[in-house]
Amino acid sequence: MLEREEALAAAIGAIESARHGVGAALFLVGGPGLGKSAVVRQAAASADGFAVRAGRADPLQAATPYALLASAVPELRRDLRRNGMHPLPAEVLLDLLDGRHQPTLLTLEDVHFADPQSIELLAAVASQLQGLGVALLATARRVPSPALDLADRLDSAGVARRLDLAPLPERLARRLLATSGVVGAATRDAIAAECGGNPLLLSWAAASRGGRARDPEPVLARFVDGQGAVRQVAEAAAVLGLEHRLAVATDIAGVEGAQRDAALEMLFERDVLVQAGATTARFAQPLLQRLLYQRIPAPRRARLHAAAARHLELRGGDPTEIAEHAVRGELTGDADLVRLLSRSAREAFGAGRSREARRGYDAALTLAGEIAPADLLLAAAAARLAAGDPAAAVTAARKVLAKPGLNARSAREAHAVLGRALLASGRVADAELELREALRRARAESLATHLLDVAFAAAALSGPRSALELLPDPVRGTGLAAARAYLALLTGDAGSVAELERTARRAEAEPGMALSRTEPEGGPVIWNAAAQVALGHHRAAIQRADAILSGPAEPESPGATARLLAVKADALIRAGELEKAAGALEAAVPLAHPDLAPFLAVLGARLELDAGRLEAAWRRLEDARAAAQPAGAALPLLEAWILHLRGSLELAAFQPGAAARHYRELEVLVREQGLEEPCVVPWARSAIEAHVASADLSSARRVIEHLRAVAATLPCHWPRAVILAGDGLLAEASGDADAAEVLHEESAAVLGLGVLPVDEARALLDLGSLQRRRGRGVAARSTLARATTLAEAAGAARLAGLARFELGLAGGRRRATRDPSRVTSQELRVAALARRGLSDADIARQLSLSVKTVETHLQHVYRKLDIHNRRDLILAKSRAAYELATSAAQLGLD
After folding, report:
1. Residues 83, 30: contact at Cβ < 8 Å?
2. CA torsion sign, 191 to 194 to 196 to 200?
3. Phi and psi, residue 675, nearest 5°
4. Which residues contact 782 (CB under 8 A, 6 or more apart)?
5. Considering Cα of 754, then 758, then 764, then 767, what sign does the dihedral take?
6. 547-595: pLDDT as tens digits
7. In this structure, what are the phi and psi dihedrals at residue 57, rounded to the nearest 5 degrees?
8. Which residue from 683, 653, 689, 692 is spatially nearest to 665, judged by alpha carbons?
9. Longest Cα–Cα distance in the chain
């Protein structure tokens, strides 16, 4: 009697009250199988010495006067015959129940089915039971009925008590299963979830485990009738699943009008169904749905599934659900249904709803089976690719190409879709072969599309210069014009900027085309945003990305969305908003096609480098290399990024010679492949520093002069600032400190004109370091304080640490409003010693503090760094803890 202690105590209390001459009444209310009858039976076992009168209402006798009471008190039938058609007076029943000589227990079950006359007579005598030794125990379901109204009235008047029984909580359901011999926590959890806390269903499921099948019909009979409209609607609902549309369930059951309304009312009243939405319901206990479904004879089950498929299609149901019902309803090959699903999918695709289109085409393919036509397979491949599943698109396109007797148009489209899907899968070399084959077969009306595909495959494999050779000049069409302008910009052609902006605005004005689902690299809007980043217009790129990304939470073009998020992350990194960049990158990863994965890893490496986590940055570069393996060839743009970041990491590790070797290799690569735009991969600044630091001044001059040549026409600040910084480093190397300081000042000033805080901080660090070495302490401290502030605000921990270190050497410290969330210098010293493994007492002795003060400092450190203990501090178990460890090391404290 788990969770029924209160009910059992109330029932026994009523019996004991009657034993002492004071009558009492208790109504137990709840759905089928909740244990109402079990409580009555167990309480009745304590009624020794009682005259027990037990009755149960029969729904078939609901129109028979006094049927309920006569089932418990047979003597009433004699009085009924004597009284004829007149109502029985209350005294007749009171005399028969008189418990003054022997206490009486009257149990009445299922009183919600009772005849009206029994309820009226029970109402008349209930208030008089207290003067007799009579206990009344009644059970009813929680459904609108005269019996339930009576229970409420008597409870309100204090004459009786109504007690509602609820399903068992999960923990008690699991305990009941354990006491029933069900072994294994996972098994108990699964059964408990399926039974919804109903003790009857839990007991049946426990007894039926391990293949010991028991007839479920007696259990089902407690909830639904064996035949009739209630059972028909319940079975139809079971065919539709745990949750379903009520209208579809009644339609396929073939139940209408008043019969339909009564059946639904009964299913809700018996807690078989519960409301899920305005027009939907779900099974309260999943086990009931499973048992009902299994009891439907196979031929009828197939007919119900077929009816469900047709009704759902008429009502615009989910294509995947329609296809599942159609297959189970033996409708595979039904041409009409395949045509209807294909039409709906085509409309969804045309409206930009890629995911819905993919589900529709997949459903149509399931129904069509092995005889699916080429057009359907091609449409499904395009929808799968647009919805973010290039592998499935490859499968569908290959099925088309394997078909005998394929016509020229289908063959051309199959090669094109296969090439695009392979490109999205990162298999660039294979993609180019397929796309070139599609181009070879192309007709005039589709030539531009196929040229665009091949151009981007060529750009990925051989660089933008070779791709441009494939495209005519001038070109017609928004997509082709934008692609040519974007590829031209990568080669350093500044004249392409205006064309990129024009094509982006035209694309944004076309409904559903802000993010292209079919054009490589995401289309004109993304190409323009990437160009804005390269030109230093980071805010414009971020704003454009945010405007487009403010659409639905689940994007219809996940691949293009991931690409735009990557562009946004790139812009945020350059704008010095590293935390936001990490968020954009995290959002892009689950949406990205495999071809973007290496570049997302590169973005991650840049974030780790700026944050000072050098080992993590090296790991991200290895991830990028591994993710590019399917390409089948080296990808110039990816190689350029990897070489740049390797050089930057070697510089950060004070290995300028190794860094210079990477940059010499990168210099050859960008010139051979035509990647002349200096800001797409901003490598020149670090290359110059590496060459100067390794005493290779001729290489440094060569990089500067090349940058001077390509940057002359570009409308951006960064190349000019790098040229000034490079000239400053060369002036330092030649001993002209005055000229070097002026050049570094000019470089920082140029960077201050744009939104380039990390680069500006780096320029200020170079300037401040030079000023410190020249003995200009006041100027150095001011410059280095600005550098530290900029780097810290951006989250560039490595650069901030270097600036703080230089500031310390210059004999200064920043004056700033104290941030209560920042670790203080004393807390930093305590934390550094704790990281070395010193105990609180050892730290106290070394710093001349009390142990209590050390403990307080450590608690402050844990809170500020969002860690929990000394172990987390030692292992740097948070970004802030890692930065603290880095700062401590740079300041010589760790």
Report:
1. no
2. negative
3. -85, 65
4. none
5. negative
6. 888 765 556 678 888 999 999 999 999 888 888 999 999 999 998 989 9
7. -75, 140
8. 683
9. 131
> How far apart (Å, rounded) are the C-alpha atoms in residues 415 and 397?
7
Residue 571's alpha-carbon distances to 388, 576, 677, in angstroms, are: 24, 9, 16
Q: Per-residue pLDDT tens for 307-325?
A: 999 898 888 888 888 888 8
Strands 134-140 and 280-283: what pairing? unpaired
Token code pair at residue 642: 């990897």
How far apart CA 335 and CA 364 sit, in angstroms, is: 10
Q: What is the DSSP string of 710-740?
A: HHTT---SHHHHHHHHHHHHHHHHHT-HHHH
CB-based burial, 655-687: b 16+ in 10 Å, e otherwise: bbebbbbbbbebbebbeebbbbbbbbbbbbbbb
> Does residue 734 contact residue 763 with C-beta atoms inside 8 Å?
no
What would the two tokens of residue 629 be?
Answer: 């393996």
SS3 334: coil
450, 438 contact by CB (below 8 A): yes
d(CA 38, CA 1): 8
DSSP 8-state secondary structure symbol assigned to residue 279: S
Considering Cα of 382, then 386, then 388, then 390, what sign does the dihedral take?
positive
DSSP-derived letter for residue 330 is T
Specify the pLDDT at position 705.
Answer: 94
Q: Coil, strand, or helix at residue 166?
A: coil
Q: How many CA atoms lie within 13 A of 257 on its CB side?
A: 1
Distance of CA 409 to the CA centre of its chain: 39
Q: Which amino acid belongs to residue 271? A: D
Q: Could you tell me what percent of the chain has a pLDDT over 70?
A: 91
Query: Is the pLDDT assigned to residue 438 strictly greater than 70?
Result: yes
Over the stretch 507-559, which tens digit does the pLDDT of each residue have?
666 544 445 545 555 577 787 888 888 888 888 888 888 888 876 555 667 88
Euclidean distance between CA atoms 673 and 676, whole angstroms: 8
Q: What is the pLDDT of residue 87?
A: 78
Mean pLDDT across the chain, nearest whole number? 86
Among 641, 635, 651, which residue's Cα sits nearest to residue 621?
Answer: 641
CA distances from 827 to 849, 857, 872 (A): 12, 5, 16
Contact 234, 268 (CB under 8 A): no
Separation between Cα atoms, residue 569 and residue 607, nearest integer Å: 10
E strand or H helix that includes residue 139 = strand 134-140
What is residue 470's DSSP assignment? T
Express each pLDDT in 157-193 by its tens digit. 888 999 999 898 888 888 888 888 887 888 888 899 9
Helices (H), 369-407: 374-386, 390-401
Q: Which of 456, 550, 540 is nearest to 505 (CA)?
A: 540
- Tell me how long the chain is: 894
CB 616 within 8 A of CB 579: no
Residue 468 tokens read as 């441009």
- CA atoms of 331 and 3, how far apart (whole Å): 49
Beta-sheet pairing, 24-29 with 161-164 = parallel
Separate counts of helices (H) and strands (E) for the chain: 47, 8
DSSP state of 88: P
Residue 498's pLDDT is 79
- Give the up-direction half-sphere exposure of residue 565: CA atoms within 13 A in the CB hemisphere: 26
For the beta sheet containing 51-56, the strands, ordered from the edge strand earlier in sequence to the opposite edge, are 51-56, 104-109, 134-140, 24-29, 161-164
| Other residues' Cβ atoms within 10 Å of the Cβ of residue 397 | 28
Name residue 136's beta-bridge partners: 25, 106
Token pair for 132: 């007799």
Residues 6+ apart with CB under 8 A from 765: 784, 787, 791, 799, 802, 803, 806
Give the global pTM: 0.64
What is the per-residue pLDDT for 733?
92
Q: What is the CA radius of gyration of the chain?
A: 40
For 751, half-sphere exposure in the C-beta direction (CA atoms, 13 angstrom radius) is 29
